[in-house]
Every structure is written in structure tokens, then in C-alpha cells.
Amino acid sequence: MSYRIDPRLPLTGEVRRILAEEIGKALVHLDAAHDRPEQALHKCRRRLKKVRALLRLVRPGDETFCSTENQCYREVAALLAGPREATALVETIDRLAKDFPEQCAGGGLDAVRDALVARQHELHGGVGLGAAIAAATAACEDGINRIDTLALPDQPEQAADVLAEGARITLRRARKALDKAGSRSDADDFHDLRKAAKTHGMHLSLLGRLWPTPIKARRKAVDELGEKLGELHDVFVLRNLLEAGDRPLGSPQETRLPSKLLKRSEKSLKKTCLAAAADLFGDRPRRSTKKLARKARTGLAAAPHEDASAPGAAA
To answer: pLDDT at residue 306 above 80?
Structure first.
């Protein structure tokens, strides 16, 4: 099965299916994280993001369930954030070396990279990681048991309105974050833009049969923006760590070159991200989702639907 809502089937059943599949895959990655934390934790968090994106999409149809479950998986992801971030920061310093080979030829990044690798090993090898994996596993297993309590409207017109409103809310968040990032250029605004862009990209996957515009080109552009915003986020985090008062990554002399190159990288990434986001989210959200609602009504109404209130429906 796929991470895509099938308009031929009742919405409740489709959302329950996708939730169960994605949470199940997250559990597989959590089990693998005991031996291979670097990649497994990253894959697990990606599955959790897919779960949360789906919950945001259908939240207008079951506010209580989706809000509660979204908060649950947000907390699960937070349990795993530290070890994953440690790996991302090593990848960030390696990107600097690749992007600025002449400046780094003399080994000016080596001391900071060594400190980041030591920090990564400490977070991945400590008892805290095992406890975090155990807590995340228990939360996901409990979450699977709650999936059957989700109840969404399955009538075509109502289901279409739920999907259109959920997509519109995320597009509105992206537009608002874009406006703030462009005017203030704060790290938090770019982080909000990144979250909204990632969620929108997942909504494009979920609504692949229903989205009204040419979806492949838009999905590619959204994915590229998400990657660049992710790199920018890691730059912000590493800059803050370099400038921390206790100097966890080295002396001022050891951190001088990394700090300089991070500032240059930040400036370039901000410019790239703002331009790409303006192309994607410059249109009014209501205009795009009106078309989505019309196409969804047509697509959903064209398929036979079982009454979700009947015994065994949407199971």
C-alpha cells in the first residue's frame, strides 16, 4: 500500500490504513536504532513527520483525535531529536568543507568536526538513547491501538471539504512564515517555513490523485525547498553551538573559520529559500484549495462509498 489517499475508498478507512502503516514502519526503525542509530533515527523521525502531516490534513474532520495524536507524536519525535541533530551537525560541517574547499584546505574545520563527532558518539552511546527508544516505542504501540477511534466524514462532499480545509491551513501557515522570514529573517521564521513546506510536500503525496495542478513539478520544487531549509536550520543550530558561552566545540581560534563559513552559507541559503518559497507559496491559499475541493468532490463522488456508520465500515 502507499502513502496516498485512494478516493475510491472511504476516507476514514484510508486514513486509518496509512496511520497504521507509517507508525508500524516507525516501530521497525526504532528497533533498528539500537544497533544503527544514525540512519534509523532519521528514518523513524521521517515516518513520524508523515503521521503528523496526515493528522494535520484531516484535523478539520476529527479535531479531538487529530490534536491529541499530533501532540503524542510530536513528543515522540522530541525524544529522538538530540541524537539525530548530533548527526546532522557533523553532516553540516562536512558540507562546509565541500562548499568551500580552498578555505578548508588547511584543516581549519578539523577541531570543530572532531568535537562534533565526539558529541555524536556520546549521545548515541549513552544510556539515555536506550531509554528514549523504549519510551518512543511504547508511545507508538499505544498509538496504533487508538487508531480505530478516528471517525471522519465519508460522504464525498464532506470528505472533500475536510481535505481542502486541511491543505488550506498548511498553505496559510507557509504563506505567513514566508512573509515573516522575508521581513525579519529570524531563524524561527525560517524554521516555521520549513515545517509548513515539509507538511505541504506530504500533503501533495497524500492527495496525489486529487491535487488540481501539475503535481510532479510542484512536489520536486517543494522537496528541494525542504532540503535547503533543512540545511539552513542546521546552520542556525551549529552557529548557536559555536557561540555558546561554555565553548563546547573549541576555542575562539578553532571556531573562527567555521563561524565565518557558516555566515556565508546562511546568507546564500536564505536568499535561495526565500526565492523558491515565493514561487511556491506566493499565491493565495484559498485559490489553490478551491480547485482542490472541486476536484476532490468530483473524484470522491465518482467512486462507490460504503456508509461509514454501518457495522464494519472503514475498518
So the answer is: no
